[in-house]
Known about the structure:
By secondary structure, this protein is α/β, with parallel strands linked by helices.
Amino acid sequence: xxxxxxxxxxxxxxxxxxxxxxxxxxxxxxxxxxxxxxxxxxxxxxxxxxxxxxxxxxxxxxxxxxxxxxxxxxxxxxxxxxxxxxxxxxxxxxxxxxxxxxxxxxxxxxxxxxxxxxxxxxxxxxxxxxxxxxxxxxxxxxxxxxxxxxxxxxxxxxxxxxxxxxxxxxxxxxxxxxxxxxxxxxxxxxxxxxxxxxxxxxxxxxxxxxxxxxxxxxxxxxxxxxxxxxxxxxxxxxxxxxxxxxxxxxxxxxxxxxxxxxxxxxxxxxxxxxxxxxxxxxxxxxxxxxxxxxxxxxxxxxxxxxxxxxxxxxxxxxxxxxxxxxxxxxxxxxxxxxxxxxx
Length: 343
């Protein structure tokens, strides 16, 4: 059985953003219907080198493959001119257990998936007519979130805020190169969010950046940056003011998302969360029911999405003739074993 090897450059040629949105939406539906086997993961800590490695897996029932993802974050790597994050996905044949593909994506597919999830949250929660978007953050996730949003909502103007004015300027230039948008660099978070119809938060902040009284009625917030207990982008009073709160997974968000801080502070209870995004997509829970409601999507990332997007990337790579095929040598080993038995 040949093993397909794909690097990040090749993976970037396999999936478009609209395709990613479609398959991530399907993954949310599958999760809501209980068709995903997601056993959880574990983290291997390497404190001596300031690193950690996370391992997760997922299997969509009645499909031909299952997936294992390994992602690492070695925070001291920049000191030796290496990026802090790297990772790979291994796809296995669900009938035999043998590996079918190894994808060294370095987090690229994860970024695409998060962008798709963010755009779906906006599709199902934001008002239909919007004009102004605010992005808090200037990294790759802030970029892909805005780029994905263009596929579900038309808008004309953007405000961006980042801790570094240089980073904010580079972000604005990057967006202008891709889209005909009026983009402005805001002098503060408060100024950035005051007139926003949709707010995207994509930072690694460990303290609140946004206050509830800065928000106008009808705003939708997609909070994507808080994915560990120490991270926080929204003051708990934002959750208290929100009329509709949707999570991608309640247990994850309750321990590492924005609602974690609201529950901890006592500003919201469990009943404040209407449900998860999969149930919203399926129509099992209501979303926005009035244009003046403030809606919030707290997204921490689901392994189920990795499984469907990785499978699509592999199938597209095969179709386009991308990657390298390596013969695992299984047949040859069996032949050798049979020959040795004859001697």
